[in-house]
Amino acid sequence: MPDSADDAPDQRLHPWSWLFELQQHLQQFLLPLVALLFFGSRRQDGEWPFHLVTLAVLLAMTGSALLQYLTYRYRIGSDALTVRSGILERTRREIPFARIHNVVVHQNLLHRLFGVAELRLESAAGDKPEAQMRVLRLAQALELERLIRQRGESAPAAVDSGPAAPAPLLELPLPELVRLGLISNRALVVAAAACGAIWQMFPRDVAEEFVRDQGRQAVGYASQLQLGAVPLAGTVALVLVAGLLLMALMSIALAIVQYHGFRLSEAERRLTVERGLLSRSRSSVAQRRIQAWTLREGMLHRLFRRRQLRVDIASGGGQEQQGRALKELVPMAAPAACDALLQHLLPAVQWPPARWQAVSMRGWWRLCLPALVTVAAVTALGCRQFGAWGLLPLLWLPWSALHAHRQVARMGYSIDSRRVAIRGGWWSRWWRVAELDKLQALRLDRSPLDHCFGTATLTLDTAGASGSPPLRLHFLEAARARELMEQLGQEMARRRLRW
Q1: 498 DSSP assignment
Q2: Is the pLDDT at 494 greater than 70, yes or no?
């Protein structure tokens, strides 16, 4: 590689990149084009103008994709990547390797058939990647990823010594993918989204009429069978069990498609995640870019004795929403494996903490207030419509009170010279860990109820992370909250922010 960006030759994308750019355009405008063709075919008198408009739109998309390929150039320098694009409005972007936080190599089924890949370079800000190369040859994309990983390191000696072999940290065999599918229940989410989309696409009266017709046919079929109460209840239960088994099988299939070949590896202080059966994705991030770590486990996780490990990376909010940034470091693993992995990646940090500090239990019932207001409204409406049966929603209040009490009782925090850790949740539990070098701002809040109970809330902001739940300490004693704020403020003042 040339030492200077000015002396380095310009490079082009893959010759078939215009085809993938056209595919992206078609995905964005698929619904309008389908609607245009549909309404045009419904008009028997003079439908050709609609076809001409559709043809003109397709030609414009194809021309735009071709121009994107003909005008896109990139140049690899010693410490930066230069990207040029555009015809009437020429754009040149200088992207320093050291500012690239996340590198994503993505391959869908079409990419794999052509032997190409899409490369995305993401920094700490912005709603879209700094550079999105659609598409490069697979070997070319992997080589560029390796080059960015090496030249992005602060120590030049790391480049001279050659690339280190990736050290595997975690792999998910097929039994783990089966458990992941059962825990995630992704088929239910997909089915709900599909039902919502169908409901929005068709007119409301048509959808309601379809549901009524299918319901009448089902009731008529059941009445013809002349089943008794017990056989009818058994048939309904059998149908429900079959539906649940079908959803479980679909969830397992979706988990296998998404996480097949999952591999977490470490090389040169960078973490790389590879996964996918039909669409392969390879995403890597420098460990120093990770702002916070989150462990999660729900009821099904605890049933299978598994946890999930996620990370917050200093990247734009738009990237987080689009799912581009590497967030799911470990989709599922045993609790001991998650703890060991976290201790390995943060060797100077003790995990799990030896002791958790509890918060104040005064006013724990405040967490019940939203449920109390909702139950009161539903009960009033139910009593008006159904009489005494409308009091049934009140049965939710004891569970809400138990949930609130247990949730506050489990809240805790642990702060030492290197990190701050927060835990919370009861039915679904979570742990959040952030190094003190990553803290950027502190905020102390006191609501009217906090003034009544002598408590406060301390919020810790990291550099660009936007994970959930936030790094926030609820139900602290007011004096203790001010003491922690002063202590952490002094630590932040004497430490250099590691972005």
Answers
A1: -
A2: yes
